[in-house]
Fold these 2 entries.
Entry 1:
Amino acid sequence: MAHEPAPQTLPPVTTLPSHRRFEKWVLAAVGPLPDSIAFRAGGPESTVAIIESPAATRRYLRALLLAGANSGLIDEAAPVEQPGSLQPIAGKLFGAYQVDGGHLQLAGCQLEDHLVCRCAWNESDVSYFASDGKRLSGAVIDAIKLDELSPRAGADELNVNEGVSAIEAALEHAESTSAAVRHVTLIQCRHAAGKIRFTIGSLSWDLPFSGWANAFTPPPFHCPHTGVDSFHIAATDDGRIAAAEEIAVCRRTGRRLLKKELAQCAVTGAYVLPEYAVQCPVTSEVVEQGVLVECTHCRQLVSPHAIQEGQCRACRTLAALENDDPRRQRMIAEHPGLAGWRNWRLAETADAYILEAQGLWQRLLAVLDRQTLHCRHMAIAQRWPGKWRDLSVEQAREILEKRSN
């Protein structure tokens, strides 16, 4: 710690509770300070005096730090290895990100010294506290190499407020554990903070960063539109900077939009605008319109994933329908001609009923809209295996409307 002459006598006016532990701890080890450093009478039990000006208060606290240093209660150190300039930090930042169609730049960066308090409770028990009062984890201690220290001799003046705050945090912890702080090392660690700016055309986005210089890791870009963290940044064609992994190009129009705003074809994997995609009525998959194929049996357009040997999965899984099934009764009420057909087998898709039934000499295939029961397709085949023959609209109407087969 930089040694300096004792400050002039300072008139105390009140007490400073936030530094009471620190003063008591120092005075208990070193005894009363010289008369030239004024504080309330009472020795080690006194409360720290608040001086009328902040500068005077800092001088008083520095006098306590100096007294602790001279008695061997407090010393200073720094990590053996830590960046001496911003260059290593900038190198990590510029190497971490990819910006499609744009560039990145530092929009402000500072390398500052922050104090960490190393408290020795005994020969083997050591704890570390940051100046904000938080106890450092083992991972952070290892990352910023706090076990590899070198003494600081003739160093620049410490930040008094940070040093006292870090010691106060340790002393507060000591009170809760009934352990005595035997020795403190104030470690001057470099800390980097700033912003990096991503620019794509006329768009820009600032990403703040902060971290210990020894263990600095560039933070990911947190996409404001998708919540995804990424180191790959791009822009949509409507002017939004986002995680590149969450942007896709519509195969039909070439537009660059967020994936969540497009439809991805379950067959090809391509992205298209929602108006160019449909839902397969059999598999419920979202499929690009031009990819659908026709079932040779029911004539519905379905996903290729639903087709096997020319027929969709619904046509391959027709199940017997009981006479009292409400669906059967509803269809007969709408189309009386169906009442004369027997041995009904039915399958449902998202929007249609696929019905097969038998007459005396023929088999019937009818595809009816589930909502309206409108006939979409009808075919006839011989009772025994035979090829299905598509019927015209008029022929289908005649079968559906007549009262008997």
Entry 2:
Amino acid sequence: MERVSDRQTFEKKNNFTALAEKLLDIEWERVARAELSGSSVGIQKNRLDAHVLPFFRYIPPTQVTHVDLDGFVSRLTQHGLSSTTISQYFVLVRKLLKLAIRQGLLKEVPEFPKIKVVTQPRSMLSLKEYSQLARTALRMSRTQVVSPELKSTQGQRERFWVAPRNRLLAPDMFWAIRFMANSFVRPGDLRQLKHKHVTVVRGQNVYLRMNLPETKKHDKPMVTMQAAVGVYESLLRHQKAQGFGGPDDYLFLPAENDRNYALAVLGFWFKWVMREAGLATTDEKNRPKTLYCLRHTSIMFRLLYGQGIDMLSLARNARTSVQMIERFYASSLDGEMNVAMIQSRRSGKTSK
């Protein structure tokens, strides 16, 4: 009887569903120790549900071979995932198989396929496009343009839809465009940014100091360009007239308690304004221009137009790394963008 019981226990553990549940428990313990963010665990769960478990559900971990792993690459490729995303999926699969080793199911992890990660820099706006976008958003909010209806509000809604109250463009879109282009924040920061996180600093330099909640293991304050101060003060005046603007009120769409919905509305508005401005919604490499491209634009403007920019300071203030700046931002630079800097000469020197 004892051998049968041991065998049943082994078989109960020898499946990816059980491993996934155990892994998520471990990851949530890391969140409790502040070693990991809750959003990271959410991403892992989404990936488990989307592709990992559907593919490996009926394959015991003890029987996984390189052939199965190659098959998983094929599945992800057929679903149109990038090499970067496929590589991230395999990080998760490796975690599961290492957990299987710790639980005595495996002796070693099988050979993994080699995935060549191809860097895809995010799209950005030129200075002309940015100005045109901001002007269009301001005009649309003042003239009360109504958006096209995405979906009927009747029946079951499985995907994002726009409520009637959000079919008129609010001034929040104009402010969000200018704020992001002058503050380096991610769209996810807009979702959770409250007035208590923002301090106006007026001294030798004028800027906003933002003590944002931790994102991607970065928790240091961020500082903005001076233009962001005027944006913030304008939206604060407007919000106070509407009964908002308190320390715990959000900067953008403060009336929306569902912050995921609020961010989705900003994303919808951004695409709408891009079309109304006559701007392409993809770049020359067919990369989509989403709300996130305003962060890219903000960083690129500093690289292009800032004087003596220190890459480390820029990276830390943008809550990223120098390596990420070089891979996803500076990699988009070409010689013609900074021809004046390339042709510049040190003072006191004469050309020969």
